[in-house]
Amino acid sequence: MSKTKLVALVAIAAAACTTAAVAQERPYSEGPVVNVAFIRTVDGKFDEYMAWVASTWKKQEEAAKKAGYILGYEVLTVEPRSPDDPDVVLRITYKNWAALDGQLDKGDAIAKEVEGSVANANKAQVERSRIRRVLGSQTMQVLTLK
Question: pLDDT of 85-96, one tens digit each?
């Protein structure tokens, strides 16, 4: 083996060891992935929206949990500060980022199970727009401190 190749291999090995050492020194570990959806209900429609959350949405999340697609879910109520702030937050927890792969197919399977078809689920989503507005969502990862 030439001296140049040997030096290159030693440099690569040293870099790999340094990277592994730095990774082990992190003061945290990667935890589950969380998606939160921010919802604003139409005035006077909070109870109607919550009835849907407690029935259909809960069935969807339970089916996703049973299938192993998600770890859990929860509903939070929020005190809005302005008309453009949410009053409901829907939180879904996934094992990791990879659990988000194939979401369309997984969602379609759940929609068929809970609402009979994807078309029915889409129609119901449009109908919900009269009682709530989706302000957006965020997906984030929990970092567990060591």
Answer: 999 999 999 999
Domain 28-145 fold: Alpha-Beta Plaits (3.30.70)
Secondary structure string (H, E, C) spanning the chain: CCHHHHHHHHHHHHHHHHHHHHHHCCCEEEEEEEEEEEEEECCCCHHHHHHHHHHHHHHHHHHHHHCCCCCEEEEEECCCCCCCCCCEEEEEEECCHHHHCCHHHHHHHHHHHHHCCHHHHHHHHHHHCCCEEEEEEEEEEEEEEC
Cα distance between residue 63 and residue 58, in whole Å: 8
| Torsion of Cα atoms, 61 then 63 then 69 then 72, to 10° | 40
Q: Where do the structural domains in the chain lie, given as residue ranges?
A: 28-145
Q: Whole-prediction pTM value?
A: 0.79
Checking phi first, is residue 116 left (phi over 0); if not, alpha (psi -120 to 50) or beta? left
Q: Phi then psi for 144, rounded to 5 degrees?
A: -90, 120
